[in-house]
Amino acid sequence: METKNIMIVGVGGQGTLLASKLLGAVLLEQGFDVKVSEVHGMSQRGGSVVTYVRFGDLVRSPIIDRGEADIILSFELLEAARWLEYLKTGGRIIVNTQRMEPMPVIAGDAVYPEDLVTKMEAAGALVDADDFLRMAEEAGSAKAVNIALMGRLSLYFPEIPEAVWQQALEKNVPPKFLELNRKAFALGRQR
Amino acid sequence: MKELMLGNKAVARGLYEAGVRFISSYPGTPSTEITEEAAKYDEIYCEWAPNEKVALEAAHGATLGGVRAASAMKHVGLNVAADPLFTISYQGLNAGLVICVADDPGMHSSQNEQDSRHYAQAAKVPMLEPSDSAEALLFAKKAFEISEQFNTPVFLKLCTRVAHSQSVVTAGERVEPAQVPYQKDPTKVMMTKNSRDGHVRVEQRTKDLIAWAETCDLNRAELGDTSLGIITSSTSYQYAREVFGENASILKLGMIWPLPEKLIRDFAAKVDRLIVLEELDPFIETHCRALGLTVEGKDRFPICGEFSPNLIRHCMGMEEPTCTSLPDEIPGRPPVMCAGCPHRGIFHLLKKLKCMVYGDIGCYTLGAVAPLNAMDLNVCMGASCSGLHGFNKAMGPEGEKKSVGVIGDSTFIHSGITGITDVAYNMSNSTVIILDNSITGMTGHQQNPTTGKNLRGEPAGKVDLEALCRALGYEHVVVTDPYDLKTTEQVIREELAYEGPSIIISRRPCVMIKGVEHKPPISVNHDKCVGCKACMQIGCPAISVVDGKVQIDRTLCIGCKVCTQLCRFGALEGTC
Asked: What interface predicted TM-score (ipTM) does this complex get?
């Protein structure tokens, strides 16, 4: 199978690393070769963060380049727009509609662009936009936004049974938060 | 069992399987997780040392005691450890010693982009370079075999994309090498004849290693289509396979110092066109040119920055994937100090007082970015103290009255103590502010000698910063709470005016430390808020202005009340 590319993007502190850990575990369980590339350190302090997840029969490069991503899973609206150029022609963007203003916008030196979903669609992307923060809050914690997004992502892998995702959740989430995260996953998985 | 493993964790696993019993390191992105992961194995004693020089010396000491030992550091940490490195190379070992060093091409979290391979050549120490997690695990074990076979320390060199990528590994069993008894050996005293003999031995060792490199399984020629041959290593090998395919001819080097000669010549003879693909400096390329080979390298690929598949395609004139973007300008999202960060108040005051601020390495380097813009420069660990001293000696009162050095607690222990000793000993009118947030913040919250806890979080020795500074000759050592802007401003003014060396300790734990109390978020009285934006000057990510009025993000605000002290209209209210 040709290597598939998924990018997980967001703002430092939003829980992107747990999302990539879960996804990696699920894909490995399915028998794929998998590589996950993360960035730690400085950029985690509220900066723009990206994780690359690649899977297939044999994965070489640990990173995804411009024009190569099949799916971009974005934890924040502006970050989806920032990484759009990494999307393949006709690729899919799953985006949390939450807006988090970066410091240049807060400081009045830059403007947060409007109508980003429409603009990304006009640029040829298939956009699945939803309020995953609301789902996470409904499940019991805003922090579960990563798991709600994983729930939605799982819909784009019809060949992977839901039980496999659930097992990965069990293995990677502390027991006391498991029920909350299961709920967030289920809400994300509903359209 | 197959599992997905971070490169650094795979190194730790390899060290474990090699029977390592001692690891001493100083944290530094992208190397930190090696030691953190190794510490999860009960069989390995792991510690954070004050700096990389101490860490390497301690690891070497453990090998004298007869156990396999390792030390991990980032590329710039190796500069600090270079002093012991060069002589340990001469002296030889009693048990295997491996130095893990992680470069950061692209400078994701570093102040420079130096290429550690030059240290291997300069110190005449062999260097292995894995290209993924499976090799990271395997090479860590292999490094100990080489270390003991050739009586030399061995480098295990990583880059960010190997250290911080997960790929599939199969873990193995641990070996338990017997502890080698210590015996006094008069040739270990590195002076006169012993040093001269040591150098001769090292030159012969390098020749032996070159002969070994010709046939070892770390280096391999993978032959396919011979119209193009690529010599490469590390993550560049993975990019080469990605771009040129599985049928390309590649000489993959797993040991990049010393380099083989015959293996490279034979490979070159089999291909029509020869390319060296390596990040940063033309290290392998220079070696190939010295062999008289015609080769393409840095005439085609950049020295600066990180490689990627598209960059290689571009440099080779190959087609790149099409991509799309929006017409809008996308505002940047630089990293920022966290809401409630104790460093924020200090930088606000230093900006207000128009100080020249000599910065250092840590989270507080973010004091340099807008809207604080309160740092003039930084260089390396500890330079804030010694650099400030030199600046003030040159400037006289004009500098002394409005300049400070700022340095975090961990960085201070790492390399600031000698700097402030220079200040006190040479009677400099300099003021150094130690930002004591009780943790090593930027690298992900490691303990250090000021926190009273060891790497595993157990009780440990604790440096008394005030007593230390007094012992070094400081009569003025003042502790202040950076959340209290009024008092802290007064302290800074007084110490700048003081004729003599002085230390200000700005003490408040990092808000991200588990267990640090967070107060209820600040609330905004919209009737009082006039939208003057005075509170915006501190660059707190929890504060924004919506429809002309201040808004506080309740999920971020921890109630530090620094902003309330800036509001002249009483619009920002702490709830307790």
From this structure: 0.95
Residue with tokens 């990173």: A63
Burial of A58-95, coded b for 16+ CB within 10 Å and e otherwise, reads ebbbbbbbbbbbbbbbbbbbbbbbbbbbbbbeebbbbb
Would the pTM of this model clear 0.95, i.e. be above it? yes
Contact between A116 and A80 (Cβ < 8 Å)? yes
Residue of A nearest to B331 (CA): A110
Find out if CATH 3.40.50.970 is the number for domain B343-507. yes
Residue type at position B539: G
Domain B2-215 adopts which CATH fold?
Rossmann fold (3.40.50)
Phi, then psi, of B240 in degrees rounded to 5: -60, -45
What is B219-315's CATH number, 3.30.450.40, 3.40.50.920, 3.90.226.10, 3.30.1640.10?
Answer: 3.40.50.920
Sheet bearing B502-507, strands edge to edge: B356-358, B403-408, B431-436, B502-507, B476-480
What single letter denotes the amino acid at residue A36? V
For residue range B24-68, list pLDDT tens digits in order: 999 999 999 999 999 999 999 999 999 999 999 999 999 999 999
* Shortest distance, CA B538 to any CA of chain A (angstroms): 10
d(CA A6, CA A68): 9
Q: Which residues of chain B have pLDDT under 50?
A: 576
> B373 CB contacts (<8 Å, ≥6 apart)?
B351
Interface touch A62/B336, C-beta < 8 Å:
no
* Residue found under tokens 């990484």: A83
Q: How far is B255 from chain A (nearest CA, A)?
A: 20
